[in-house]
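PT: before anyone asks, these are the final sequences, not the draft ones from last week. 440 residues across everything. Please model them as a single complex and drop the result in this thread when it's through.
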Amino acid sequence: MILSHRKLTTAVVSLAIVIGSAVAAAPAASAPSGCPVAGLGCTYEDSNYGKGRINFYEKVPRFAAVGYWVGTLHVRTNDAGSSGFNRGTSGAQAHWFEHDNYRGAVVSANKNTGVNFSSKKLNDKISSACFAGYCR
Amino acid sequence: MRWLSRSALAASAVVLVTWLTACSTDDVQLADLDLPAKNQSQWRLPLDQYLPPLIDVEYDAQQVFVQKCMAEVGHEWIVRLDPAGTATGESWNSAGRKLFSVHLAESYGYGNSGQISRSPEAEQAWLDGERSRRAVADQAPEAADGCFDQSTAVLDDEPSWQVYDLAMEIAGGASGDAQESPEVGEAASRWRECMAKVGLPDLPAVPEEMPPASVDDGGGPAIDAPYSVGDEFDVSAEERRVAVADATCQDSSGYARALYDAEWDAQAEAMKSHADDLVRYGHQLEEQRARAESYLAENTPEAR
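LR: through. Structure below.
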């Protein structure tokens, strides 16, 4: 297919936006859908706050024990999270950990910010989460 | 220079710039990228100094700012700063990495201490304060959000998060690389042999997947299980037995050492290609923390 210069430029720009949104850490932003209540730490099945979610006010010591993702009912909850958002209200950081019970490498997000776990090389590798101070 | 073609000149320039950049990077790596001393028991790693610290002066300064700001609009935002010199809890290193050892397994099983070392009374006071802040933010969300927004004008932590984001990216990759190294895989086989005597029907392939379901039935809600100060010592005899055996086998099999060395090497290697950024970011963090310290000294002199 032959594209006009203008269409080609538009296509290139669109592709860049798509690639950029896929690889970059999610920026500070207003709360994404699926993270509706102030105070929550929100974990999503897909990047950029997509598909199922598992939300917490304090902690999730083992994602495997949660059982399913709200919204999709997919049952693989361990090593399956792809993004997170800190909608906490007190200023505490939200942490997501590589292994159960808060072990291994950690991804942290400041208040009102989110992160694609792929940007920290931990896509589909998250097994626990907590707000700072609640990691018990 | 007239005999050089334009393309040859351009190519020469590219080579020169590449060479200068390489020299510059090597110089930075050799001279300025300061690695800490190795310490396996604290799981100290090269990137720790660039990761979000558990004891965070910028967080403390922001809380004090919000406390003053909220007071101006009639809300009590309770902040209790830990005394100067407060350490991390014994289950954690300064960069927020959870530790595991025979001693810790004897105390907490697969659980852990609080992230900050506090007396039970101080921990309860912190927990009460945190719950109070959440309640106030629920009651007056616009005021709380407004105060956090205003805090960025005085104590913008965005430059620090630039550093943390890069460090978390490198650290996440290094952790995965370390777990996949052949030396760690061989040590995991020895760990399994050592753990056979513990008699678990569902012993996992690697220590990172401990404890299995036969030891940890998940008792209680999977999300936000209620917690009281002191619960961390409420560990079943079976969990304690397995955790101690696990930590002992991780030591005797060489697993803990192999994983630590592999993760150290992976981080140090990955840091080389970010040396310029990390040196600059190290200075950036120092400036950020000095500014937060100054703010606290001016606004909470009684606590410093």
